[in-house]
Amino acid sequence: MELEAATRRFHLWFHGLRELRRDLRSARWADDPAQLGALVGRFVAHMEYYCAARAEMDPVWMLSAPWASPVERGAAYWLAGWRPTTLVHLLYTESGGRFEAQLPDLLLGVRSGNLGDLSPAQLAQIDDLQRRTVAEEDGLSREMAQVQEGHGAVASGGEIDVDGIVERARAVLGHADALRLRTMKRAVEILDPAQAAELLVAAADMEIGFREFGLKYGSGRDD
Fold first, then answer.
1. 197 and 24 Cβ atoms separated by less than 8 Å
2. Where is the DOG1 domain (predicted)?
3. Which of 73, 91, 80 is nearest to 176 (CA)?
4. CA distances (Å), 172 to each of 46, 143, 182, in order?
């Protein structure tokens, strides 16, 4: 995929992310689990589609992300994208904030059905998701460190195997995208539709917020 095409693909994906955030915000208070479930599915499919497109991209471009602002690259990126455990941390943060806000109602037995009303079973599954994701992240970080340190970079003739290095980097970045997608899908499976909608709105807010901040203050450029 050429750089111009990759940049255009990113902007199309980002525009779609804004639209999905708008739709989820509008629908998350509606008493229609089917509608929310469909929108959550569209959000995950949007992420899945972009990950598939990124698999065709030059891994050097993925790592350098020329379409991103320095703020995004420096503060928000891990292996060319957001760290999967960030989604779990966001889930805990959103849940904790809502739990405190509605604690009086919960003590009276009034259930909200939102992220402040997670069941013990859900919390146990989220904890398991976090532990598994941390372990996989650590493994991928070690793999990328080996690529960057040049492990296995020298071919039999004593020359640097540049193509081999690029392909190893591509494989690690592909696994990182797969972990991002897998983490999102598992979180959505654990949550009810309204809860999943809240989490995905918060995730979109974070992604869009980093970009807007970077474009405004970090010498970024939105082409």
1. yes
2. 3-220
3. 80
4. 22, 7, 15
Q: How far is 16 from 68, CA to CA, in rounded Å?
A: 17
**What is the structure's pLDDT at 41?**
96
Asked, for residue 146, whether it belongs to a domain, the answer is yes
Cα distances (angstroms) measured from residue 25 to each of 39, 144, 175: 10, 37, 31
Residue 11 located in a structural domain = yes
Three-class SS of residue 140? helix
Residue 223 lies in a domain: no
3-61 confidence digits (pLDDT tens): 888 899 999 999 999 999 999 998 876 778 889 999 999 999 999 999 999 999 999 88
If one counts every other C-beta atom within 10 angstroms of the C-beta of residue 93, the result is 12
C-alpha triplet 115, 102, 127: angle, nearest 5°: 35
Q: How many domains does the chain have?
A: 1
In total, the chain counts a number of residues equal to: 223
Q: State the residue range of the domain holding 173.
A: 1-218
Q: Which two tokens stand for residue 16?
A: 């779609």
* Residue 150 resides in a domain: yes
How far apart (Å, rounded) are the C-alpha atoms in residues 118 and 219?
Answer: 40
Strands annotated E in the chain: none
Q: Find the helix or strand (DSSP H, E) in which 139 lies.
A: helix 120-148
Confidence (pTM): 0.88
- Tens digit of pLDDT for each residue in 107-121? 445 455 578 889 999
More reliable by pLDDT, 157 or 129: 129
Q: What is the 3-state secondary structure (H, E, C) of 37-74?
A: HHHHHHHHHHHHHHHHHHCCCCHHHHHHCCCCCHHHHH
